[in-house]
């Protein structure tokens, strides 16, 4: 049974406690509660506990306790690792910051990657608060201990700490650090070599250029030829960082051989990484090397035997083309890139960037290389692919010109109008509208309007309806004359259609094109038909006819 | 109450030995450190940890029970003070962490030493807990659960030499997992035919190469082994190498295909050879030669004339495992009547030993056994017809470095060591 607090009683007993320590006491005890949520809560309020304890007790009691209790759930350890990164003031400021190293060192050996990474992040943070002396006396020995530790996990964590302590230590210590890093790059365990490879770029950035050339390059080459695929593919990432650090003239001898090797690696995963990082590589090596080396490499990746690699390369086509030097861009795209691309989606990607190509390449050449691609896409079995090319059609039409369009693309646009997928028919209708806007009403009258109106006699009611939808879309762009002379008669005739859907869409069409017609026409021709439809047997036809009458104010 | 042992596996150092049983339990034994005080107990194995790995489950969709029996255990290479192993039943693979705790926190703020709650107003100072030593406690906790990736029964798991991936195989498919990712796996082999009526062959075992991270093999019920290269393509439906011994037409029988089914495949430690176990023999293959094995060892050839009755009592479908010793100079596999067989590859000598309590006393040397195949039975020999086919040794393991072996005889585990000089 819990004893109740009795203020009177306490005063009588002369108690000198007050309950302001109670909440902190609760927090401390809950560090060990069975409920993980309570433990997590306490850890998140660790700074409160530390403040209450004061800097000395935090250093001498709290931190040792935390160092040894790393039996816990990941979320708790993760929260702890994060808290400690902000604990400098709570242990008494920068001169005591090294007291935070033991618990973080413990956390850096945990097998959960996310906890280890957070511990390393916090160690990196507090390394900046260490004075150069403290770095050499406390921090660097920690890094050395981790780097030569028995456990793989300590050695992997060490990899993330070299770059933060290197800049501010003496040159003897620098040499030691470089040696440790070298050792980890050739560690027995793939896990450690992977960690070293992933930190290679970051470490290279803080090294003096002479050491980049002497040490880093040989480590990079070795990792790029590692027997484990998982190590080699990380070296590809390092390649980008290293290339940006070296002067242009050194790239060809120091980096390019390794990169070429990676692009032809036997493992598709390594080639995939090259493809995935291609844009970054392009920026790092510069335009000259891109032209001579990367373009052929990219061609090969686009034609790779493994589909995953081709897909990764295809994803980078747009960016790669955009970042090519202007003077050679079009030539490279047309002669090297486009022919390698078989997949419709990718070709589409390239075509969408055509506005830069138009001026330089002649229509003939364009049509030879692009038309097959466009036709293929237009007839692709997947409707979303067909949809995508329709959406490009107005842009293409504009770039290729009206003659080319009429000759080669017109029939495609008309075929889409009778596609079996509704979304395509709808997009095709919208496409026609844009084409009319581009090429003008006269062109429309001569080329597309006859074909659209011809569909009004199609045995399939869906196609007959498409005629109406087209008319809806085109009437404004085509203007009053064409609408009245050519389109209206067809609409009116369809009011006798057998299918109710067609008839009520006639009503809707009349409502839509009404504003384009003159009032005589409306009264003389439209109104009688709408009145007839308002008396139709079908209730939808009646409804839409009545609506059209009221909207057009024909009553 | 011991259950039937279904898998036995030493860890990389040989310090720990794990067994899984039909009841879904895992028992881990640890080798005692040698000490001067007890010279005769050179590294005995004592129970280190016991935990329930899998529970029986019910698949509501198919109205089937999923057994909790542990099919395979594989250890991960040690990465810190704790130990990790993968254990699997028919459908779900679990990653377990086994760690030691030898310290306990003491000192509460809100409670007295005897557990009575303190008055909040009486708390005048804060106490930070202090860690005091306690008796060693070994805890097992599940760290990852890899589920829902197998339609058929999982028969193998194998950790890749990259230490970040592993593969799992069922009758028709092989999946590749990343140890840190449980919601996704990649299917790398799929031999399911479009029409299930055309099914003639299933996957019986699979293993990753010990050093080459891109190579793995899988064996089939038709006695073939396929070696695949994960570098070549994302899907490994096409093999790089195909190992099959041409059939000897003179020994063809109704049972030929059944007894050719490979029950286990193991790479040698060197990575140059692999060993396969079929019903009557163990074969060693050189990875560079696909058309026949380089060595064949008869395990219990005397059973060839008994195949009919072995088919009737289903014993012909027993799946025996096999293992290499640390230096690849010897191989071991089990048989019936609690017999197990060891073959020395260099001397070509073989020996049959028995794992049973009646026939051996602790610390006594095992006596070699012999099966009499016909004619006059010598004393100490046992005749084929007296063999107890219920006493099967399906699971055996050899210490990675020393001559210590673990043999599972139904629900008993036997550990034998080399004679001391």
Automatic annotation (TrEMBL), chain A:
HEAT repeat copies, ranges: 23-61, 177-215, 216-254, 255-293, 294-331, 370-408, 448-486, 487-525, 526-555
Pfam families (UniProt xref): HEAT, PPP2R1A-like_HEAT, VPS15-like_hel
SUPFAM superfamilies cross-referenced by the UniProt entry: ARM repeat (SSF48371)
GO cellular-component term (any): nucleus
Source taxon at top rank: Eukaryota
Annotated Phosphatase 2A Regulatory Subunit A helical domain residues: 100-281
InterPro entries: 2AA_helical, ARM-like, ARM-type_fold, HEAT, HEAT_type_2, PP2A/SF3B1-like_HEAT, PP2A_Regulatory_Subunit_A
Protein name: Serine/threonine-protein phosphatase 2A 65 kDa regulatory subunit A beta isoform
Higher taxonomy: Eukaryota, Metazoa, Chordata, Craniata, Vertebrata
Gene: ppp2r1ba
TrEMBL record, chain B:
Name listed for the protein in its UniProt record: Serine/threonine-protein phosphatase 2A 55 kDa regulatory subunit B
Membrane-crossing segments per the record: none
Organism of derivation: Astyanax mexicanus
An annotated Gene Ontology molecular function: protein phosphatase regulator activity
UniProt cross-references to PROSITE patterns, sorted A to Z: PR55_1 (PS01024), PR55_2 (PS01025)
Self-association state and partner proteins as the record states: PP2A consists of a common heterodimeric core enzyme, composed of a 36 kDa catalytic subunit (subunit C) and a 65 kDa constant regulatory subunit (PR65 or subunit A), that associates with a variety of regulatory subunits.
InterPro entries: PP2A_PR55, PP2A_PR55_CS, WD40/YVTN_repeat-like_dom_sf, WD40_repeat_dom_sf, WD40_rpt
One Gene Ontology CC term in the entry: protein phosphatase type 2A complex
Family of this protein: Belongs to the phosphatase 2A regulatory subunit B family.
Gene3D superfamilies assigned to the protein according to its UniProt record, in alphabetical order: YVTN repeat-like/Quinoprotein amine dehydrogenase (2.130.10.10)
Keyword annotations: Repeat, WD repeat
The keyword Ribonucleoprotein belongs to this UniProt entry's keyword annotation: no
């Amino acid at each position: 049974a819990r004893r109740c607090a009795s203020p009177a009683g306490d005063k009588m007993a002369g108690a000198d406690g007050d309950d302001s320590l109670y909440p902190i006491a609760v927090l401390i005890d809950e560090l060990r509660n069975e409920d993980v949520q309570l433990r997590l809560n306490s850890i998140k309020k660790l700074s409160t506990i530390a403040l209450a304890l004061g800097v000395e007790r935090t250093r001498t009691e709290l931190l040792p306790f935390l160092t040894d209790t790393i039996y816990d759930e990941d979320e708790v350890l993760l929260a702890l690792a994060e808290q400690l990164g902000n604990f400098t003031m709570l242990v008494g400021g920068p001169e005591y910051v090294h007291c935070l190293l033991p618990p973080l060192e413990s956390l850096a050996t945990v097998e959960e990657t996310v906890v280890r990474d957070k511990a390393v992040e916090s160690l990196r943070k507090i390394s900046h608060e260490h004075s150069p002396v403290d770095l050499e006396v406390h921090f660097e020995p920690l890094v050395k201990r981790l780097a030569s530790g028995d456990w793989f996990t300590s050695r992997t964590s060490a990899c993330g700490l070299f770059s933060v302590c290197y800049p501010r230590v003496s040159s003897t210590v620098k040499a030691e650090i470089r040696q440790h890093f070298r050792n980890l790059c050739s560690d027995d365990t793939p896990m450690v070599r992977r960690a070293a490879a992933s930190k290679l770029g970051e470490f290279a950035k803080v090294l003096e250029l002479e050491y980049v050339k002497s040490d880093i390059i040989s480590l990079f080459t070795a990792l790029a030829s590692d027997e484990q695929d998982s190590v080699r593919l990380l070296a590809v990432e390092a390649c980008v960082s290293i290339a940006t650090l070296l002067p242009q003239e050194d790239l060809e001898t120091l980096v390019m051989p390794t990169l070429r090797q990676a692009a032809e690696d036997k493992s598709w995963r390594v080639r995939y990484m090259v493809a995935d990082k291609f844009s970054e590589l392009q920026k790092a090596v510069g335009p000259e090397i891109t032209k001579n080396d990367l373009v052929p490499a990219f061609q090969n990746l686009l034609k790779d035997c493994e589909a995953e690699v081709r897909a990764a390369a295809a994803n980078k086509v747009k960016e790669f083309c955009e970042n090519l030097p202007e003077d050679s861009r079009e030539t490279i795209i047309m002669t090297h890139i486009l022919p390698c691309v078989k997949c419709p989606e990718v070709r589409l990607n390239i075509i969408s960037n055509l506005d830069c190509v138009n001026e330089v390449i002649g229509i003939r050449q364009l049509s030879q290389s692009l038309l097959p691609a466009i036709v293929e896409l237009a007839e692709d079995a997947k409707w979303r692919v067909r949809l995508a090319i329709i959406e490009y059609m107005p842009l293409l039409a504009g770039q290729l010109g009206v003659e080319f369009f009429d000759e080669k693309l017109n029939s495609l646009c008309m075929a889409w109008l009778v596609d079996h997928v509704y979304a395509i028919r709808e997009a095709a209708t919208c496409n026609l509208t844009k084409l009319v806007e581009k090429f003008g009403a006269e062109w429309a009258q001569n080329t597309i309007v006859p074909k659209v109106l011809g569909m009004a006699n199609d045995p399939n009611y869906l196609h007959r309806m498409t005629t109406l939808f087209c008319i809806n879309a085109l009437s404004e762009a085509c203007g009053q004359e064409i609408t009245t002379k050519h389109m209206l008669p067809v609409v009116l005739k369809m009011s006798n259609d057998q299918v109710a859907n067609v008839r009520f869409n006639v009503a809707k069409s009349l409502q839509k094109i009404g504003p384009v017609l003159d009032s005589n026409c409306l009264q003389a021709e439209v109104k009688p038909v709408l009145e007839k439809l308002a008396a139709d047997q079908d209730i939808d036809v009646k409804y839409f006819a009545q609506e059209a009458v009221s909207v057009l104010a024909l009553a | 109450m011991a259950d039937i042992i279904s898998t036995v596996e030493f860890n990389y150092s040989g310090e720990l030995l794990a067994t899984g049983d039909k009841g879904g339990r895992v028992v881990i034994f640890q080798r005692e450190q040698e000490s001067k005080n007890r010279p005769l107990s050179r590294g005995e194995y004592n129970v280190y940890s016991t935990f329930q790995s899998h529970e029986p489950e019910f698949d509501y969709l198919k109205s089937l029970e999923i057994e909790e029996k542990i099919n395979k255990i594989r250890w991960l290479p040690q990465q810190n003070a704790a130990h990790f192993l993968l254990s699997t039943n028919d459908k779900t693979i679990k990653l377990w962490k086994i760690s030691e705790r030898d310290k306990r926190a003491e000192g509460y703020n809100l409670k007295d030493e005897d557990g009575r709650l303190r008055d909040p107003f009486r708390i005048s100072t804060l106490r930070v807990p202090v860690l005091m030593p306690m008796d060693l406690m070994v805890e097992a906790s599940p760290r990852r659960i890899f589920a829902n990736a197998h339609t058929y029964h999982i028969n193998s798991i194998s950790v890749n030499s990259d230490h970040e991936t592993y593969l799992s195989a069922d009758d028709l498919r092989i999946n590749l997992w990343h140890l840190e990712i449980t919601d996704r796996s990649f299917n790398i082999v799929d031999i399911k035919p479009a029409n299930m009526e055309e099914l003639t062959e299933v996957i019986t075992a699979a293993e990753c190469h010990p050093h080459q991270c891109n190579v793995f093999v899988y064996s089939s019920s038709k006695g073939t082994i396929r070696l695949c290269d994960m570098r070549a393509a994302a899907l490994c439906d096409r093999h790089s190498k195909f190992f099959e011994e041409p059939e000897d037409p003179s020994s063809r029988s109704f049972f030929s295909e059944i007894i050719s089914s490979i029950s286990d495949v193991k790479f040698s430690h060197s990575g140059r050879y692999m060993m396969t176990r079929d019903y009557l023999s163990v074969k060693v293959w050189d990875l560079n030669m696909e058309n026949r094995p380089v060595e064949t060892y008869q395990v219990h050839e005397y059973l060839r004339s008994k195949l009919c009755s072995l088919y009737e009592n289903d014993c012909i479908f027993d799946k025996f495992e096999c293992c290499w010793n640390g230096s690849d100079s010897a191989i071991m596999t089990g048989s019936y009547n609690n017999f197990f067989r060891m073959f020395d590859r260099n001397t070509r000598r073989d020996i049959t030993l028995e794992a049973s309590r009646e026939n051996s006393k602790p610390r006594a040397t095992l006596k070699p056994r012999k099966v009499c195949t016909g004619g006059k039975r010598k004393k100490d020999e046992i005749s084929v017809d007296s063999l107890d086919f219920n006493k099967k040794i399906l699971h055996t393991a050899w210490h990675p470095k020393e001559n210590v072996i673990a043999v599972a005889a139904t629900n008993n585990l036997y550990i034998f060591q080399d004679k001391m000089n």
